[in-house]
Amino acid sequence: MHITLDSETDFDGWRQAARQLVLNDVRPPEVTWSVWGAAPGLFEPPDDVPPQDTPSGTFSVPAKFVDLAQSAILHRNPERFAILYRLLWRLRSNHDLLDVATDPDVSQAMTMAKAVHRDEHKMHAFVRFREIGREQKSHYVAWFEPEHHIVELAAPFFARRFADMAWSILTPEACAHWDGRAVSITPGVPKAEAPTQDRLEETWRRYYASIFNPARLKVKAMQKEMPRKYWRNLPEASLIKPLIEGAERATAAMIAGAATTPHKAQKRPEPVMPRTPSSTAGDIESIREQAAACRACPLWKDATQTVFGEGPPHAPLMLVGEQPGDKEDLAGRPFVGPAGQMLDRALEQAGIPRGKVYVTNAVKHFKFVPRGKIRLHQKPNTSEIRACRPWYERELKSVQPDLVVAMGATAAQSVFGKIMPVNKTRGRLIDLADGPRALVTVHPSYLLRLPDAEAKAREYQRFVDDLRMAADLIRKPARAD
């Protein structure tokens, strides 16, 4: 029986065919495997012969076999399909076969999988992009020659690492491209289509030469990690041989030179956070100035600035969010980004003027993880919320609102001083120990994340209803007076 797969990496096609063959009791020696477009072997029939019957039934294999097969099938060994099918056939009667590392089939499959992942690692390490075009129209292109069929496997790493730039990785077999949204795979191209240099080439070579330490050079270890076959595609390759040859001379010169005075680390002075007691209310402007120098948790190191609350100094309603986002961090004001626009629209529909509300956040610095030029929001942890709570307490004592609305779980944890589940407490009026009352609702950013339009509309209306409840509660004392 002859099976032809669609491509060298057609794991789904192999799995479907292998399952059907096993269920039809087709023994491994009775099957030959090939890839569409490849030259037929001497004893291969001209056309595929599928199993006679569509099998019914099923059988199970360990999950680690699927992982092993997905990796090993990317190896260049032309016998890999047959080896994996032989393993699959044997696993049906020996479910623990993969635990026998000395078994020839198991050992060969694992060796292939290891070689594939080693080749993937080398691609991650030794791809060098060259720039084509300038500024907004720039595109980055690299040439690489993998040992195995790993281009599609390795491409997601580069999409994560270089998410903010358009790039292409060209290889003889397949090419990977990233446009800022998705990875696409196209057929391979000859090396002549890859650029040979760019405007930053010389800068990179100077940098490489400056960090080369001849005293720590271990040639065999270096060549093991960076084999010579990769050198021809590296901009720094022209420097490697002369640097190695001059290492001994450079090391001798370093030893003969006079000892230098150790460099003292320059530590950036950190402003001392004012130690004003949290029980002191104070003027809101003076509290804002003091918060600008806050170093109570590490978030200040990466943030642009402290984003303090704003609004009337004695507003009847205080809204508390989670933390500033990217837009807020740059502007230095709370709720000016997409979530702030959503909040403004909801406040207007609830009949609450934004200018009469004091808005702030439980955490005053932006916590994020960088992804290229993008800064992705990260949820503050309990220690960061606790470190920033004294600022909220001082805002609360200074503003003295009639009602506090905690928007989201982080805000609720700061307002109540403990974890409060949003869904269980939402819409309930709760007395705070500090005097005012509090309501819990969702954060506007939660509404932005909902993928379903119907659910988004429904949850947005609930959010507006929560704000209307807050509006009614702050009006009642005025009518009672």
Low-confidence stretches: 270-281
Overall pLDDT = 85
* Percentage of residues in DSSP E strands: 5-15%
- N-to-C span: 92 Å
Number of H/I helices = 17
Main sheet overview: 5 strands, mixed
The CATH architecture of the largest domain comes to: 3-Layer(aba) Sandwich
Strand order of the largest sheet: 3-4-5-6-7
Secondary structure: number of strands: 14
Could you name the CATH topology of the largest domain?
Answer: Uracil-DNA Glycosylase, subunit E
In the CATH hierarchy, what is the class of the largest domain? Alpha Beta
Which structural class should the secondary elements be placed in?
Answer: alpha/beta
Q: What structural keywords apply?
A:
481 residues, alpha/beta, 4 domains, five-stranded mixed β-sheet
